[in-house]
Amino acid sequence: MITMRGLIVRIAGLFNRRSAESEMEQEFQSHLQMQIEDNLRAGMPAEEARRVALLKSGGIAAAREAHREQRGLPFMDTLLQDLRYGARVLRKSPGFTFVAVLTLALGIGANTAIFSVVNAVLLAKLPVHEPNRLVQLWETEVSPGRFPFAGPDYLDWKSQNHTLESAALYRYPSPANSSHNGQSQPVLVQRAESSYFSVLGVNAELGRTFAKGDDQPSKRHIAVLSYQYWEESFAGRDDALNSNLDLDNEKYMVVGVMPPWFRFPAEVQVFVPLDMTLHGIGERGNHSYKAIGRLKPGVNPETAEADMKTIAAGLEKQFPGTNDHVSAVVVPLREEILGNARQRLLLLLAAVGAVLLLACANVANLLLAKASGRQKEMSLRTVLGASRLRVVRQLLTESLMLSIGGGVIGLAGGFWLVKLIESSKQLPIPRYNPVRIDTPVLLFTFGLSVLVGVIFGLAPIFQTARLDLSEELKSTSQTVMNGSRLTRLLRDCLVVLELGVSLALLIVAGLLLRSFVQLQRTDIGVDAHNVSVGFIMLPDVHYPDLQARKLFCNRLVQELSAIPGVQSVALSTEIPIEGAWNGTINVPGDANPAHRRQLVEFNFITPDYFRTLGIRYKQGRVFNQQDMEHGAEVTLKIDELVKKNPKLETVPPELSYVAVINEFMARMFWPDQDALGKIFRWGGTNMQIIGVVGDVKQTGIRGEKIPQAYFPLTLNEDTPRFGASMIVKAAGAQANVFAAIRSKLQDIDNTLAVYSPRTMETVIAGDIQDATLETWLFGSLAGIALILAVVGLYSVLAYLVSQRTREIGIRMALGAQQGNILNLVMRHAVVLICVGIFTGLAGALLAARAMTDMLFGVKAHDPLTFGTVISLLSVVALAACLIPVRRAMRVDPMVALRYE
Amino acid sequence: MGDKTGDKADVWQGTLALMILKTLESMGPQHGYGIARRIEQTSGDQLSVNYGTLYPALLKLEQDGYITAEWGVSENNRRARFYRLTRTGRNQLKRETKEWEQATAILARFLAPKESV
């Protein structure tokens, strides 16, 4: 048994080895002398006395060893010895060590960063109470898909279901004006039912969240802040609680601050209770809410969906007008949040994993080359009594030193990358957990380093395990250099693997690049040049009705148009790329059921919308100021009628509007006719088509073509919480156009803030940002892979040539032409390249199939990409052969033969 | 471990530490050779102690803090390393002596001719 004190002394004993050794020798010596003296005293002759003394003392060597073992810790001792020896070996070839450690650091660092994202997004639980019981609730509509909720439908679901423990309705986050110290700032607000936080099972960091009944009118003016907003706007002060927050000119009392990790959803700054009164919740048929639910224990989402479908079917019978085809979808919240991030992240992880594999292969290759030179050393050590295990242990220690060194540097790089990822607001990853390097990530990196070290460390061990000792020791250095056939095969396999993996990665990157180019080339239908957009929100308190809003909008367009250098100004409810306001229409006399189900994108605009965005005119005319005024009159009259008769379904035909539609809509609904002058019904009102314009990518660049209908903005100016996008086209690039817009806005109403001011070009770039990022990421990974593979191929060929210098010399001496030598080396290279390409093709086809969703305008097995990448790889690989081949052809037979 | 010399028995490992402690208690500070001779004499030359067993055992006792060592001069004017019992060593000796007495007593009872109960 070792006591604690003993252990400490023994660890200390590892370090003062030299003095302990000499003390031991002196002590043994004095012991021996005393024994000899005693023997002399007993009357033995000198020779005899010494012999007996030595005999009596037992084996000195064994005693020394036993003493040493007792002195230190044998295991630690060997380890330290291995480490010291390994460090010496690595220091002796600094170039090799530098390249190996750096290669591994690159691979391990990239893996650490991507794994920390995978860990935060895919592995870690949502940071809420029992997240597996949370579901997102959706309605369906006439066209397939998931649709937002109509408030009254939600109330029926909530009261009639048997599968949900609780549920909460909430609006999409929307901007509001927040006056703070006399300055107006835009804030992103989410209105939610009072049960919102309790469904999630999250408490406030400070103060409280919503209490039951907070969504009733008398108590509704309270606010819960996100941690980030609290820090930004209230400087993280405790007295923020119970202070006032001004939102759209209404006062809200701050009752709580959420914890810093609460990101549901991430970008929302302020939570306020949703008006849950029957009046406030809106009409059936008006789908504009989201909802979450918490399943009762033991209930699975499928059962809940069946339950909701039954309720929806009942509502469909009860309200045939509004709830036609409205059914239910229940999705686990986790799935809803992840979307297609899982597939993208796993593909990325596979790609960085592949790069690490290549790094390993290269280091293994280097080690193999080194190991051939060290075979004699290993044999010698074995002959001198080192057990085979001991030799293996020594080699493994060396490779682990490399990999752990690489791991430490890689981790440092990983920390930097993770910081970058976490601080970037634009990366398209679901951010419900912070991305950081925590225990699982550290364990992953450490495990990876060890695994990597063992993997590439095994290669030379595999080789030494087969040592024939006497053969190795007898052999000259030349024959050792020839290495075993097995080693050569192993190295060839590594090169084939490298070529294959880099081919697969290059093809993935190529496909992404092609679809990125396709995305960029896509005609959006607008001229985004020098166009800026920004959203404003009109508080109901100051702009209570259509008249007030119309006056404001007219004045705003006028003022903005007066900014020097501004060519054209428009207001609209939607902007291209980011539109999402859609519904169905009804063409009198059109019985086609597909048309009844067809979603049409709506947009409410001012007359100059098309000119400002450079949308092409095709037929008829666009709106003028009279159309706007006329729209306002009709809207007021219809509102009057609805006030008298809330159940009004059809508006008298004389109260009709005008509309402009896109070409696609004209061709779809009136295929063989002129759409001009035709009438369609929207929400029970007649719309007369006065013009046709070009198609616009309204729902994103990847979006399918969709019918689009434009109405005068005044049709929408009667709705509460009215907001619109300002669209400004300038003559040239204007850096300070937003400053000018803000100052004009201040002149009209200084409580209004501009939300999300951007150029139209930014809006478009934002839509393909994920593709941009993916192209860049996979492109660089493929580039690294290509470099690693080429370096691997080069080193194998260079090695091959150096091994066969003598053979080549003999062949030349015997009359071989340069062509024959070329043939000799190139045959080997070409076989390697071909096998590598075929292996890679198999991998590429698999990867391409997995990434179909990420592609746009390119088939997964796009022959152009495959062909280009294969030729590129072949050319680069052959180029890598040039130097070794030249060296082979320049072999001087005399020098080569004398070498022996 | 060490080779057998003649028909003398090697020291049973666990007991050597106890013998060393006891020797140092009765003789006072002593060098390794002296300890070895004393143990052999006490055993009536039944035991043989060599380097391979003695010095690691001394080292272990030293590491555990039961004995200390310092260089001195032997009775024959020879430089030697002298070992001395420490206070914890003395306590350890008492404890181990007691344990051994108990153990041998129990064993003796087992080995004694059976009496009817």
Describe what this molecule looks like in 3D:
The complex is a heterodimer of chains A (about 900) and B (about 120). By secondary structure, chain A is an alpha+beta fold. In chain A, helix 17 (about 485-520) runs antiparallel to helix 25 and helix 27 (about 820-850) runs antiparallel to helix 28. Chain A is elongated. Mean pLDDT of chain A is about 85; it is low at about 475-480. In chain B, about 55% of the residues lie in helices and about 15% in strands. Chain B has helices at about 15-25, 30-40, 50-65, 85-110; strands spanning about 10, 30, 45-50, 65-75, 80-85. Chain B is globular. At the A-B interface, helix 1, helix 2, helix 3 and helix 4 of A face helix 2, helix 3 and strand 5 of B.
Q: Determine the fraction of residues in helical runs of chain A and give it as a percent range.
A: 40-55%
Provide mean pLDDT of chain B, rounded. 81
The count of β-strands of chain B is 5
Q: Biggest sheet of chain A: strands, sense, closure?
A: 7 strands, mixed
Number of helices of chain A: 29
Distance N to C terminus of chain B: 45 Å
Q: Low-confidence segments of chain A, ≥5 residues, pLDDT <50?
A: 476-482
Structural class of chain B: alpha+beta
Q: Provide the structure class of chain A.
A: alpha+beta
Largest interface: A-B, 31 and 28 residues
> Stretches of chain B where pLDDT falls below 50 for ≥5 residues?
1-7
User: Mean of the pLDDT scores of chain A?
Assistant: 86
Widest sheet: strand ordering of chain B: 2-5-4
Radius of gyration of chain A: 39 Å
Oligomeric state of this protein: heterodimer
DSSP strand tally of chain A = 23
Main sheet of chain B? 3 strands, antiparallel
Radius of gyration of chain B: 16 Å
The share of residues in extended strands of chain A comes to 5-15%
